[in-house]
Amino acid sequence: MLPCDPLLSLPEVATPEPDCGPRHVDIWWWPYNAEINWDKICSQLTPDEQTRATTCHFEKDAIAFMAGRYLQRSVLSRYTSIPPQDLDIVVDPHGKPYLADTGVAFNLTNTEGLAAVAISGTAKMLGIDAEPVGTAIEPGASSLFCSSAELEILSALQGSERQSLLLSYWTLKESFLKAVGTGVIAPPDQLNIRLDRMANTVRIDTVLTADDKGWHHRLLSAPSGHLIAVSAQLDQVELRLRQRQLPDPL
After folding, report:
1. Which segments of the chain have a pLDDT < 50?
2. What pLDDT, on the 0 to 100 scale, is given for residue 183?
3. Residue 35 has what pLDDT?
4. What's the confidence (pLDDT) of residue 116?
5. Which pLDDT tens digit goes with each residue over 78-128?
6. Is 12 exposed, middle or buried (0-12, 13-18, 19+ CB in 10 A)?
7. Could you count the other beta carbons within 10 Å of the beta carbon of residue 81?
């Protein structure tokens, strides 16, 4: 099975003035809930983000959107000393957000009950994805995103063990595809996840990027009941992660 470490086993990011040190990728996470004052959260977003929140058809989707954007702006402000509403967050031609005029790499994920941001000052590419551990993936869906080698491994498993590995495959692939900026769709034979048993690390075999060196992938279990995957391309041998929970706003 793929290795998965507790999120809280990672060193904690120092505050109040964190830095994007060259040896770290930081994960900021926020296990939000419906009882938070969401009108106050919305007021701290940009006018465009406020408008987008109001266009969500379901309240839970609006809350997830606001949680993600609030966390993203709060974290980026801490690292750049730019006021949250003044951050110039733009998107590239593939729709991947980036922070104009800085060397900071970041990526956001938000799912029901959790928003998380990965941030680094040195990563060439960076992606993060999170899913509730109870997420059920239909048996027939595995052939749409799993390689033949992965399907062979899955065929020997049943029940919760199979679902757990299938969710790990999905979350890792989403974090990688978000890092390279191609979206969440790729032919199954172009992504194959395997365990490097000598190093007990996760590897992804792919032909999607011309430069396949320096990639690191990690799976983490959050106390909120979510699985988190991080993919980063770095000019260093080891991926060093730190974490910090964002406190609920007063």
Report:
1. none
2. 57
3. 86
4. 98
5. 999 889 989 988 888 777 888 877 778 999 999 989 999 999 998 999 999
6. exposed
7. 7
CA angle in degrees (0–180, nearest 5) for 92-93-96: 45
124-149 exposure pattern, b = at least 16 Cβ within 10 A, e = fewer = ebbbbbbbbeeeebeeeebeebbbee
Quote the pLDDT of residue 197.
Answer: 77
CA distance 156 to 100: 47
For 222, phi then psi, to 5°, come to -90, 150
Report the relative pairing of strands 89-91 and 97-99 from DSSP bridges.
antiparallel
Alpha helices, DSSP H, located in the chain: 38-43, 47-54, 59-80, 142-145, 148-155, 159-180
Q: Is the peptide bond before 132 cis (omega within 30 degrees of 0)?
A: no
Q: How far is Cα 241 from Cα 243, in angstroms, rounded to an integer?
A: 7
Return the pLDDT at 43.
92
Separation in Å, CA 94 to CA 37, 105, 179:
33, 16, 12
pTM: 0.93
CA distance 157 to 149: 14
Contact 248, 36 (CB under 8 A): yes
CA 58 – CA 114 distance, rounded (Å): 17
**Residue corresponding to tokens 């007021």:** 43
Q: What is the DSSP letter of 12?
A: B
Q: Characterise 84 by phi-psi region: left (phi > 0), alpha (psi -120 to 50), beta (else).
A: alpha
Question: In this predicted structure, what is the pLDDT of residue 18?
Answer: 81
